[in-house]
Structure formats: C-alpha cells, structure tokens
Amino acid sequence: MVTEEEALGGIMSPDLAQMTVEQIRLYVAGKGKVEEPLLSLLKADPRRGVKAVARQWSRRSQREAAERRRLQQLLSFERRLWAQGISLVAGIDEAGRGPLAGPVV
After folding, report:
1. pTM value?
2. Which residues contact 35 (CB under 8 A, 6 or more apart)?
3. How far is it, in rounded angstroms, from Cα 52 to Cα 66?
4. pLDDT tens, the chain, 105 aa long
C-alpha cells in the first residue's frame, strides 16, 4: 500500500486529512496531472467532496487518454508515410460554408 506521503510526492506534501475539500481541490488542480497513488487516496477519503474531486479527475484522465488514442489513430496514415521517407502530406478540407471555387474533384 502506498503511504500518503509517497502519493503526494514528498516530505513537504500537505496532509489530506487536515485540508478542507476546497484546499484539496485547489491542490489537485495545481498539480496539473494526478497520478494513480494520489487518486487512490482521494477515493479512499471518507468525505463526499473529496470523492467527487477524485471522480472528476478520474473522468478527466479517461477523456485525455481517449483523446490521445483518437489522435494516434488520426496520425496513423501520416506515420506510415513518414516511415517510408515521405515528409510532406497534403490534404483538402471542404468543411465550412462551401467551396471557394467550385466542387473538389
């Protein structure tokens, strides 16, 4: 099991039990990325507000992972071409109000 000190990242880390829910929310927001040990501590906290912070950051982490997978999938075609030595990949996009000079053929 991970200790609170290890999960919070060091000797000078604040004590979660002594912090208010709002202080925890600000602390977590200031970290930018919440690692799994800290997330586990937040989920184990008896306070509903702290559990809500954990759920919020867990969902955010899941959304970010899904976005990374989506971007990897979008880049898969380009990566194959780059691996073959092709460095310039062009494309067209006809989204918006309409084409500027007729249909794309």
Report:
1. 0.61
2. 7, 9
3. 21
4. 555 555 555 444 578 889 999 999 999 999 888 888 999 999 999 999 999 999 999 999 999 999 999 999 989 988 998 899 988 877 776 666 666 666 666
Helices 36-44 & 48-83, crossing angle to 10 degrees? 160
**Separation of alpha carbons 43 and 55, rounded Å:** 8
Helix (H, G, I), strand (E, B) or coil at 45: coil
CA separation, residue 73 to residues 36, 46, 85 (Å)? 26, 40, 20
CA distance 71 to 19: 38
Q: What angle do CA 58, 26, 5 make, to 5 degrees?
A: 75
Sign of the four-CA dihedral 8, 17, 14, 30: positive
| Identity of the amino acid at 31 | K
* The token pair that represents 6 in the structure block: 């290890």
Helix 48-83 and helix 21-31, axial crossing angle in degrees, nearest 10: 10
